[in-house]
Write a structure and sequence with these properties.
The protein has about 80 residues and is an alpha+beta fold. It contains 2 helices and 4 strands. It has helices at about 1-15, 40-50; strands spanning about 15-25, 30-35, 55-65, 70-79. The model has no long low-confidence stretch (mean pLDDT about 85).
Length: about 80
């Protein structure tokens, strides 16, 4: 339990990047990359490069503020 709390605190203070597979509007496989906390757009793009080493197309990009935190979401399709 302590590890979980420490991990959450670390994510909030440093920033976390999480991904999940989604379907695009055309039904193709896509990836949703969410960057929280101190993560920047550069962190999102770096994760996109790891997921799609041969390049990617950006389907959607959005930033939402929740209190003092900003949550950035990048949805991509691999080439």
């Amino acid at each position: 339990m302590r590890w979980m709390i420490l991990l959450i605190i670390l994510c909030l203070s440093v920033g976390c990047v999480s991904t999940k597979q989604v379907k695009s509007e055309t039904g193709d496989m896509a990836h949703s990359i969410e960057c929280r906390g101190a993560s920047s757009w550069a962190d999102c793009y770096a994760k996109a490069g790891q997921i799609c080493p041969h390049g990617y197309n950006i389907i959607a990009k959005e930033a939402e503020r929740k209190g003092r935190r900003e949550i950035k979401t990048l949805i991509i399709e691999c080439k």
